[in-house]
Amino acid sequence: MNQSEKCLYHSKIRLELEEQLFSSRGKVTANLAAAYNDLGVSFSMNKLYTKAVPLLNRSKKVRASLEGFRKDHMYNPMYHLALAAWHQGNDDEAASLLFEALRDRIDVLGPDDRQSVRTGTLFYALGNVRASQGNLEESFVWHQKALIHFRATGGETHYYTAHACYRVAEHYFRLHDYHATRNLLDQVLKAYQDRPYYRQELVMTYFLYARLLRQTGKDPQDMLERAAAALAELFPKSRRSSADLTEDDLKGVNAYEF
Asked: To 10 degrees, what angle do helices 136-153 and 159-174 make?
């Protein structure tokens, strides 16, 4: 059982318990809303989006019924509905959901709040969606905003900061600013290196680093070997060596929030 499957298993148990409590007490709670959300996320992580979306919408409905409800309390289901849409190629729907969630946070907390990484995740996801739509200039703006926000709220070694460093590094690589690219990738590796559960992100990072080294006339072999080794851990049957590793091999490496 991989991590996504374990998450799904435990999320199902949690929702069963919360629904039992609801049946006995007759009162909805924030825990019930969170349980619907978490099971929806677990289904999305396992690419079972048709099962995920109804649960995320159910979480929205429960949240809206709670005492003291505020619009920004919709963040979790809105964010994950957007990710589900994006992973299915529904970029316009994903962007609409993200902008709605961002407006809700701005209405309640003001522009670019620093209460948590949440606003940054909306910036980051918008950067990914705009990139999928081919709007790389706007994507760059959103990813930069996300990186600034994550550094201010999560710190330099937070995994969201590392995510944003990678995406901004991609932009700098595209713009041929190789010094900035390398600095950001070094920060990504520092954040991920001792966390083997970020193998998917590491594969992407090692491979981009190898491309950077090759582009700047340096030997990429070590980074290619690291990428191939991490890929083999993810997909033991892939049997891809560093010598024949290509960008096509990375298409199946699609971390949920990356």
From this structure: 150
